[in-house]
Design brief:
Length: 146
C-alpha cells in the first residue's frame, strides 16, 4: 500500500519574523509593493481591496518576506477602516523592526466612487535622512564646446 503525504498549507498569521540587517552602517531604502491586500468594510462586511507600498530604512532588523505575506493575509477576514488598518500595520512593523524610517502607503480601490489613499510614517527619534543626490541635475555632456 502506497503512503500518501498530507499537504501542508500556509495559514494567515500575526507573527512577524525578522533577520539581522546585513549592512547596518549605511542608510538604504527597502521598497515593497503588496498589490493584493484585502480586509472587510466594518460597516457592510464587503471586501475592500488595496495596493500597499512599504518603504523603510532598516536599523538593526529587516522583515522576513514570508512572515510579512502571512501577516498581510491575516487581515482578509477582519473589518477595519482604511485609516485604522494602515496605522495598525505600520505600528506592528515598527514594534518588531524599530526602523530608522518607515512609510506605509495604502491605496484602496474605488468604493462608492471614492478612492482612499492613506500614508502613515514613522521616524526613529534623532534620525535625520541623508541629503539626496540628484544625478539628473548634472548637465549632459556635449560633443562640442560652446
Amino acid at each position: 500500500m502506497e503512503k500518501t503525504e498530507k499537504a501542508t498549507f500556509s495559514r494567515p498569521s500575526k507573527s512577524l519574523e525578522t533577520f539581522d540587517n546585513p549592512v547596518r552602517a549605511r542608510d538604504y531604502r527597502i521598497h515593497m509593493e503588496i498589490p493584493e491586500f484585502t480586509c472587510l468594510c466594518p460597516k457592510t462586511g464587503q471586501p475592500d481591496f488595496a495596493r500597499l507600498t512599504l518603504d523603510y530604512i532598516p536599523d538593526k532588523k529587516c522583515i522576513e518576506l514570508k512572515s510579512l505575506k502571512l501577516y498581510i493575509w491575516s487581515y482578509r477576514d477582519e473589518g477595519a477602516f482604511h485609516e485604522a488598518v494602515t496605522n495598525q500595520i505600520l505600528d506592528d512593523l515598527v514594534v518588531v523592526l524599530k526602523p530608522r524610517f518607515m512609510r506605509l502607503t495604502s491605496k484602496f480601490y474605488v468604493r462608492g466612487g471614492i478612492f482612499t489613499n492613506v500614508v502613515a510614517e514613522h521616524r526613529k527619534k534623532g534620525w535625520q535622512p541623508q541629503l539626496p543626490v540628484f544625478l539628473e541635475a548634472f548637465d549632459q555632456q556635449s560633443n562640442t564646446r560652446g
